[in-house]
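Please check our next protein.
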Amino acid sequence: MIKKIAWETFKNTGDINTFLEFKQIEEIEKELVEQPTKLFQKEIEENKQEKW
């Protein structure tokens, strides 16, 4: 979704900085989605080690 908005904004304005800013937002959103999963996996691994 963000990628499409970024591309359309770039086509309309010709401003590459706007496109790059949207791409940064897209990367931040991706990290926010993946981070809880990574933390949960880490917690599971720590719990496994404590049991043994």
Notes: The chain has a mean pLDDT of 82. The first helix runs from residue 2 to 13.
